[in-house]
Structure formats: C-alpha cells, structure tokens
Amino acid sequence: MEDLIKRAAKDLAESKYAIALTGAGMSTESGIPDFRGPKGIWTTNKEAEAKAYQRYELFLNNPRAYWEEMLGIDGPYGAFYEEIRQAKPNPGHYALAGLETLGIVKCVITQNIDGLHKKAGSERVLEYHGSVHAVRCISCGSRFAREKVSVDELPPRCQCGAALKYDVVHFKEPIPSDVREESEKEALKCDLMFICGTSAVVYPFANLPRMARFHSSNVKIIEVNADPTPLTQEGISDYLIQGKTGEILPRIVEEVRKTQKHRS
Ligand code: NAD
Fold this sequence. Notes:
The protein is α/β, with parallel strands linked by helices. The protein has eleven helices and nine strands. The chain has a six-stranded parallel β-sheet, with helices on both faces. It has a three-stranded antiparallel β-sheet with strand order 5-4-6. Helix 7 (about 115-120) links the parallel strand 2 and strand 3.
C-alpha cells in the first residue's frame, strides 16, 4: 500500500493535465450511503431501486406526482435529499481540492449529487449526474438554485413555462449535453485520470476512463476504491489502491507535497 501511495504521488506530481473522476464511495465517510456497497441504499432496499428506475418517466408523465414524491410527501426521497444537503465534506474531498490548489488536478468530474466537492473548495467541478442543490429545465436547459425556487405550487415552472425537475439525472434520463460534452473533452485531454470511490458500472460515465485509455496508451489511470471494479479487472486502470478515499487521498497529497518540496 505504501509503495502504491508513493507511486500515485509521483505520477500526479509528474502529470501535465490530471483530472479526477469520483463516485458515491467518496462520500460514504461523510455519512451518505452509496448504492451498491455492502451498506448501500439499493443493497438494503430493493424497492427504492425499483422506484428510482421509474422516476424520470414519472416526471415526464406527471410532474406534480414527481415533485410530491421528491419532497417526501409521497415517499422517503425528500428526507434523503435533505440529509445530503446537510452533509459535510470529509478528508478525501479536501485532499482533491488540495490537489487543485497545487495546480495538479485541473477538473473533478463527479457522479455525486451531494455538492461536497464544491463545499470542500474544488472550483472546477462537473456534476455529471446533477446536484440536489439545483433544479433544471429539460426544455431550455436553465438551472436554478433549489432554495430559490418556490414549491408552494407544484410543479414549479421555468421562465420558459416548462415544468422544472431536480437537476439530478435520474435513470433513463439523458445526461445534459453541456456537462456530457465538457466531460468527454476532459477525458480526451488528460494525461492522468484519478478515479476515486466509484464502482464504474453506471454508463455513460463509465465510458470516460475507456475513452481516455483508447485515445492514448500513455494516459495513466489510477483507481482508489474499497473494491476492485471492472476497470481494474479489464486492465483499463494501471493500478488500484484498495481502501478508503478519506484515508488514502490525504496520504497521497502529503507525499505530493514532499515530492514538490524536494524538487524546489
Ligand atoms: P456505487 O454505489 O455504484 O459504488 C460505490 C463504490 O465505492 C463501491 O465500489 C464501493 O465499494 C466503494 N466505496 C464505498 N465507500 C468507499 C470509501 N470510503 N472509499 C473508497 N471506496 C468506497 O456508486 P457510483 O459508482 O458513484 O455510481 C452510482 C450512482 O450513485 C451515481 O449515479 C451517483 O449519482 C449515485 N449516488 C450518489 C451519492 C452521492 O451523491 N453521495 C450517493 C449514492 C448514490
């Protein structure tokens, strides 16, 4: 483990354009359960998984019923989102923000909807699956802060007249084109991809490491995760540092700082 931490620190310090890709595993140490880990929301509640698959269709067919469900009037989701909104970043989030301050990580592309990278100080964050802190119009693409939008009357409406939904991308919903296109550009541009806390099974996000690998055989792809993933098993990543992001990432940043001091 210690050797791999040193190796990752060296690779990061030598990179020209590193980006981070993150998933729900980043935030379990902030008290937000993931979906597919041993204590994951879906591992423990199959009904919640089935409902999640129907949510986008519900919005399209009956936006009022969608909002009632999301606000917790008709289900557990309102309370879940509230819990996410209250969560605080953990040492893993701060470590990634630190790598951006050091000029190493140029961008974080996250599947997380919790906004914790921004709360920790990361500035360039692409929220691939949206955010609980915002609502979005699927007709004109506008986004608004969730707390600025009144839900006294359901569904809330955009200035263009269409019903608003949470910015969160639900299953079977297309990824908003602005964030998808920017993420793909980053994946093709990077020379190091640092993938933290994701099972890498949700598509199209899981295509990003594959795009990077097939675009350039020189790109370095490093995973930090509790368990091996298809990226580990298929040799898409160069190596996996197995363990908790909240413990491993700060140790990597410490090593990077030592390497930089040594050089100056
Ligand atoms: P996932 O649940 O499929 O996988 C999480 C992975 O992280 C698992 O491999 C697990 O073993 C690992 N993990 C758990 N805790 C860890 C830790 N402390 N350190 C290192 N690894 C750890 O999640 P995913 O890959 O992000 O994909 C699923 C979807 O989950 C995404 O669409 C995302 O929007 C959604 N989601 C987000 C949140 C959040 O915003 N925090 C929470 C739950 C689900």
